[in-house]
Amino acid sequence: MLKTQLHPHFLFNTLNAISTLIHSDVEVADRMLARLGNLLRISLEYSDWHEVTLTKELEFLQCYMEIEQARFGPRLILETQVDPEVLNARVRS
């Protein structure tokens, strides 16, 4: 479901944030760029799939939230609690 977040405005905002951070915090900008690359890789890798494991969906979510965390800083707090028994469950992508 999070693939719907990869609209042009998300990409534009992320690239704009990286462009700004590259002058003030190269390490954070580099980490954001790496997460964006991971997010795009996952999105393309599973673009034709109708279902993925919850583990894959959470991996996608983690990359997405790390980008948002870099953009919004301490204003954004995310906590996930997932029962290990459901990690192989199939979810619609």
Major sheet size, sense and barrel closure:
2 strands, antiparallel
Spatially, the strands of the biggest sheet line up as 1-2
> Helical segment tally?
3
What is the tally of beta strands?
2
From N to C, what is the helix and strand string? Answer: HHEHE
- Could you estimate the helical fraction of the residues in percent? 55-70%
Task: Please give a structural write-up.
This protein has helices spanning 8-24, 26-45, 54-72; strands at 51-53, 90-92. The chain has 93 residues and is mostly helical. Strands 1-2 form a two-stranded antiparallel ribbon. Helix 1 runs antiparallel to helix 2 (26-45) and helix 2 runs antiparallel to helix 3 (54-72).
Topology:
Blueprint: H1 8-24, H2 26-45, E1 51-53, H3 54-72, E2 90-92
Helix pairs in contact: 1-2, 2-3
Task: Write out key terms for the chains shown.
single chain; 93 residues; mainly alpha; two-stranded antiparallel ribbon; 2 strands; globular
Quick summary:
This protein is mainly alpha-helical. The protein is 60% helix and 6% strand. Helix 2 (26-45) runs antiparallel to helix 3.
